[in-house]
Amino acid sequence: MPPFFSNKKLIILLASLIVLVALVGFSIKERKQMTWPEQFVHDTVGWFQVIFNRPAQYVAGFFETIDDIENAYKENKALKADLEDYAKVKQENKEIKHDNQELKKELDLLNDPDLSAYKKHPALVIGRSYDKWNQLVTVNKGEQDGIKPDMAVITPDGFIGKVRKAGQFSSEVILMTDTRNANQIAAMVQGSRIYGMIEGYDPEKNVLLFKKIPVKAKIKKGQMVVTSGLGQIFPRGLPIGKVKKVTTDQYGLTKIAEVEPAANLNDLTHVVIVEREAGTPAANNLDKKGDKS
What we know:
Elements: H1 3-6, H2 8-28, H3 36-110, E1 119-127, E2 136-139, E3 152-155, E4 158-166, E5 171-175, E6 185-189, E7 195-202, E8 207-214, E9 224-227, E10 239-248, E11 254-261, E12 270-275, H4 281-292
Antiparallel strand pairs: 1-2, 1-12, 2-5, 3-4, 3-12, 4-5, 6-7, 6-9, 7-8, 8-11, 9-10, 10-11
Function: Involved in formation and maintenance of cell shape.
Coiled coil: 69-106
Keywords: Cell shape, Coiled coil
């Protein structure tokens, strides 16, 4: 036997190299199918990936959802605050606009040439009781400002009542809607010589009761009723309201007209107290003008 074949270690080494080369070549060669060891390892790794990957995704998604909810909450809170600020500013602007309109009307009233014969005292309503809503208001002008009882109180829209009591720095005004019938007002239909008295108020209909109208007087719905000045207390020609309905009293002797107030007595802020200076030429001229109107 040749010496080469007698060396067993060398033969085993060569055989191992041949097998190794064959395995490397087999593994490098393109295959469409994996061997069962490879398939086992691949499936095992994939299974563990599925087990650990899905919970990890759920956990990550959960924390992302929490962050989204927190961000949405902060954004909603900021938007709500902005909306509240907008509503507040809008309301403030609305109130300022309303006050400006009221002040402009009051300024026009103070400059009204028809009232040039009368001294006018602008005042602000500072008190009104809910249980006497249709009866009394308190204004911020009193005796120190020349205010006296029975002076007429008006707004740019019309007559509202008279001063009942005057304190040093404030006064109590009784409204013409007082249901106690304590505020009788000499009145007339504008543009005519139909006279009568405002006596009473119907809160359910929101109308004043224009009574003692001559039964033959021709009075129609929509006509304006004004102060007549015959009571020697109020200026002549102050708007009271428009005729809404005309009926005859229960005895058939006089007519009664329901008059809707010209002024909004539920929204009284700025008023003017009128001081009549009887006997002056201007006042007499105004009375004559009222006769013609």
